[in-house]
Specification:
Blueprint: H1 3-26, H2 42-61, H3 66-90, H4 102-107, H5 112-130
Protein name: DoxX family protein
Keywords: Membrane, Transmembrane, Transmembrane helix
Transmembrane segments: 44-62, 69-89, 109-127
């Protein structure tokens, strides 16, 4: 992967994670139904994941921390996948939130694969892109 492509991919992932993290903090109720009750406070998990997304975005944006940001982002994306599956299973036609519409909820599941692969690629190539 070229240094320019690594930089562009890192920027795209940082933007996506920053947007998602912000939404988690501004509208936590959207995500609270994804948290299984045995885990305790849904709000705490949603806010925590939002902060984690913002931290990953920041790490991806800084050349010195980009490799670690790629690893952390890949782990985060894998970690939230069960919540995305739950969202898809709970989706239904006519849902008020577009994210809860079946076509959106199910359509986003396969998108996790290239996102994780992209984060791993950034982690692997960040050193070359910084030179």
């Amino acid at each position: 992967m070229t240094p320019r492509r690594t930089l562009l991919l890192a920027g795209a992932l940082a933007g996506l994670l920053a947007t998602s993290g912000t939404i988690h903090l501004v509208r936590p109720r959207v995500f609270e139904p994804l948290i299984p009750r045995p885990l305790g406070s849904a709000r705490a998990w949603v806010v925590g994941s939002g902060v984690a997304e913002l931290a990953c975005a920041a790490a991806l944006a800084v050349p010195r921390t980009r490799a670690a940001g790629g690893v952390a982002s890949a782990a985060l994306l894998v970690g939230v996948f069960p919540g995305n599956v739950k969202m898809a299973l709970d989706s239904h036609p006519g849902a008020r939130s577009p994210a809860r519409q079946p076509v959106v909820a199910w359509g986003r599941l396969p998108l996790q694969v290239p996102l994780v692969a992209g984060a791993v690629a950034v982690a692997r190539n960040a050193g070359r892109a910084a030179r």
